[in-house]
Specification:
27% of the residues lie in helices and 23% in strands. It is α/β, with parallel strands linked by helices. It has one domain: Aldolase class I (TIM Barrel), CATH 3.20.20. It has a nine-stranded mixed sheet with strand order 3-1-2-4-5-6-7-8-9. Helix 1 packs parallel to helix 2. It starts with a strand and ends in a 6-residue tail after the last helix.
């Protein structure tokens, strides 16, 4: 039996955050997430019964029909809550030079490949009541060489919590990116200025949010 997926949207855009920021990319947004971050800018992708059903093969064909791009980004929702995620990634690796997955890290990696990158975004206590669940599989993610830890940070106590949790879980500073929380360009800039100081002190990297800067909060970008 072929695993089907719940799809929120498929589109062509620019990767706005993480290690590949600025790269043209196809996006496959999967439907369904129960992590429930208060600041989430894609809450329309939370409901597991929403979106539409499709096979991994059909989703890949739909994305490729949009035009050329060197990167496939699988996001959500929470991709790791889909039984068909491994099949989707295997097909993605056959169609793109590089594939990235955006995940909270709520489950361990289902697949490892030299051209498959994981942008793992464990949550801080102020974000959601399930924040601890997103740190539970940190050891498995540390063992995945292509995993980067991208932590969304807003107002205090977020910066202190981020530094504490990174230390507790022994995340190498070179694999940590701090990303400013915000749904407006002004909010992102305000948080980014504070995070720049923290990155300089701790050796973390700073992730932009180019999509907020360019388009604000919109679907399909």
């Amino acid at each position: 039996m072929t695993d089907t997926l719940r799809i929120s949207e498929v589109f062509l855009s620019i990767q706005g955050e993480g290690p590949s920021a600025g790269t043209p990319a196809h996006f496959v947004r999967l439907q369904g997430c129960d992590v429930g971050c208060r600041w989430c800018d894609t809450k329309y992708s939370w409901e597991f019964g929403g979106g539409r059903e499709a096979t991994p093969a059909a989703v890949i064909d739909e994305a490729l029909a949009l035009g050329a791009a060197p990167l496939l980004v699988v996001t959500g929702g929470e991709p790791l809550e889909h039984p068909g995620i491994a099949a989707l990634l295997e097909r993605g690796l056959a169609g793109w030079p590089r594939v990235e997955v955006e995940t909270s890290g709520v489950a361990p990696p289902p697949l490892s490949h030299a051209r498959l990158a994981w942008n793992v975004s464990p949550k801080l206590p102020a974000a959601t009541g399930r924040w601890a669940d997103t740190w539970r599989h940190t050891a498995a993610w540390l063992a995945e060489p292509n995993a980067t830890f991208k932590i969304v940070v807003g107002d205090p106590p977020d910066p202190d919590d981020a530094r504490r949790l990174v230390a507790e879980h022994r995340l190498p500073s070179g694999r940590v990116m701090l990303m400013p929380e915000g749904l407006t360009d002004e909010a992102v800039r305000r948080h980014a200025l504070a995070l720049a100081e923290l990155c300089l002190r701790e050796g973390f990297r700073l992730s932009p949010r180019l999509h907020v800067w360019m388009w604000g909060v919109r679907r399909g970008v």
